[in-house]
Design goal:
CATH topology of the largest domain in chain B: ATP Synthase, domain 1
CATH superfamily of the largest domain in chain A: ATP synthase, F1 complex, gamma subunit
Shape of chain B: elongated
CATH class of the largest domain in chain A: Alpha Beta
Structural class of chain B: alpha+beta
Helix content of chain B: 25-40%
Strand content of chain A: 5-15%
Structural class of chain A: alpha/beta
Order of helices and strands of chain B: EEEEEEEHH
Radius of gyration of chain A: 28 Å
CATH class of the largest domain in chain B: Mainly Beta
Number of domains of chain A: 2
Largest sheet of chain A: 5 strands, mixed
Distance between the termini of chain A: 25 Å
Largest interface: A-B, 61 and 53 residues
Number of helices of chain B: 2
Number of helices of chain A: 5
Radius of gyration of chain B: 26 Å
Strand order of the largest sheet of chain B: 2-1-7-6-5-3-4
CATH architecture of the largest domain in chain B: Sandwich
Strand content of chain B: 35-45%
Largest sheet of chain B: 7 strands, mixed
CATH topology of the largest domain in chain A: Pyruvate Kinase, Chain: A, domain 1
CATH architecture of the largest domain in chain A: 3-Layer(aba) Sandwich
Shape of chain A: elongated
Oligomer: heterodimer
Order of helices and strands of chain A: HEHEHEHEEEH
Number of strands of chain A: 6
């Protein structure tokens, strides 16, 4: 029974791995619930500021903010949100594939790109493909804070205001449900005007101190809130994807243990049979 | 409830308050403003300070905010509160920091933008995953 001990060791090692993946699954499940709660908590702000921006965009302000004006696209800024850690299935890979389609299209058109990344995976990816990363933030943790978004976004928004980039896209994962996360690309600036034409009203706000200052702070916050939401949603996606990946891993480990156990039993049986036949053979020879 | 106004106080991270009030006092950048129901539409940035809501019957509610935006419609006041302390210099400092981190992370980057290569790499990875899945089904 030569292989018996080795198979036993192998089974023990797979069992250990299974324990780890099962624990990771449970951790991811509880973190996902928290991330989902946070996702819902950010909604009221996003909805309120979106409606303010909608009102502002169709109001008749004498000042047109650059975020509301479309111009010819020569350079594009990309905001990419990824996870910090791996072991979350195809979440990042799917997103990067979608990203490459966009980047490929832009490069074909002769458009240059500048990238701001959130999360180490996106940083690593854009570094590897040789893109220009102008700012990055990683190790955001499980409960992202607005303060972590402001700095990196300031870099791109500043570049946009100076005319160095002509559009900014956000690439992030949408949390459809626990089983599905969909990579999505949204245009952050220029802000696309809303389709509701009948909303056109004939009133305007009183701007205090003036429309420029108000619009500057409202629109900056609007863009930041979109990115912040993306980051929060990405945490929920990461946890959901990890939970699923770890569940699969645990199941696979279970299957593997069963198979190994079968081989072990067979081996044991074979060695017993052999021993008996040797004894019988020996006895017959005497 | 004709002489009350609906107030929503929200921050990017959570909803802070939602309800009716008789009067809203907020620290706008030009000085404190008091908003009564049916106020004309107004929009203004807010300074760090205190939001005071007159809830009627002499009751008041206080909220501290570290800046934000006040939007007023005749029957609705929205306070978009900041969660981080903001100032132009502070934002710029944070931006520089993020830029520096990116530069540091990219020191050993040599290649130019190479989409074709990256696509090939991703396709190979996807093929690998597909192969593993197929093997597993057997």
């Amino acid at each position: 029974m030569a292989g018996g001990k080795e198979i036993k060791t192998k089974i023990a090692s797979v069992k250990n791995t299974q324990k780890i993946t099962a624990a990771m699954e449970m951790v991811a499940a509880s973190k996902m619930r928290r991330a989902q709660d946070q996702m819902f908590a950010t909604r009221p702000y996003a909805q309120r500021i979106a409606s303010v921006v909608r009102n502002v965009a169709i109001a008749n302000a004498e000042y047109k903010h650059p975020f509301l004006v479309e111009r010819e696209v020569k350079r594009v800024g990309i905001v990419a949100i990824s996870t910090d850690r791996g072991l979350c299935g195809g979440l990042n890979t799917n997103m990067f594939r979608k990203t490459l389609d966009l980047v490929g299209d832009l490069v074909d058109k002769g458009v240059e790109i500048e990238v701001v990344t959130f999360g180490t995976k996106a940083l690593g990816f854009f570094k590897r493909i040789g893109a220009r990363v102008v700012a990055e933030t990683s190790h955001i943790g499980d409960s992202p804070e607005m303060a972590q978004i402001i700095g990196p976004m300031r870099v791109l928004l500043g570049a946009y205001e100076k005319g160095e980039v002509d559009a900014i896209y956000l690439i992030s994962n949408e949390f459809v449900n626990t089983m599905t996360q969909a990579p999505t690309i949204t245009q952050l600036v220029p802000i696309e005007p809303s389709q509701d034409e009948q909303l056109k009203h004939h009133w305007d706000y009183i701007y205090e101190p003036d429309s420029k200052e108000v619009l500057d702070s409202v629109l900056d916050r609007y863009i930041e809130s979109l990115v912040y939401q993306g980051v929060v949603e990405n945490v929920a996606c990461e946890m959901a994807a990890r939970m699923l990946a770890m569940k699969n891993a645990t199941d696979n480990a279970g299957e593997m243990i069963d198979e190994l156990q079968l081989i072990y039993n067979r081996e044991r049986q074979a060695s017993i049979t052999q021993e008996i036949s040797e004894i019988v053979g020996g006895a017959a020879a005497v | 409830m004709a002489n009350t106004i609906h107030v929503d106080i929200v921050s990017a991270e959570e909803q802070i308050f939602s309800g009716e009030a008789y009067m809203v006092y907020a620290p706008a950048v030009m000085g404190e403003v008091g908003i009564a129901p049916r106020h004309t539409p107004l929009i203004s940035p807010l300074k760090p300070g205190e939001i005071r809501l007159d809830m009627g019957d002499g009751k008041e509610e206080f909220f501290f905010i570290s800046g934000g935006i006040l939007e007023v419609q005749p029957h609705l006041v929205t306070v978009l509160s900041d969660t981080a302390i903001r100032a132009h210099d502070l934002d710029e400092a944070a931006a520089l920091e993020a830029q520096k981190r990116a530069e540091e992370a990219l020191v050993d980057q040599q290649s130019d933008l190479d989409v074709a290569k990256a696509k090939a790499e991703l396709a190979a990875a996807a093929a690998q995953i597909a192969a593993i899945k197929k093997l597993r089904k057997k």
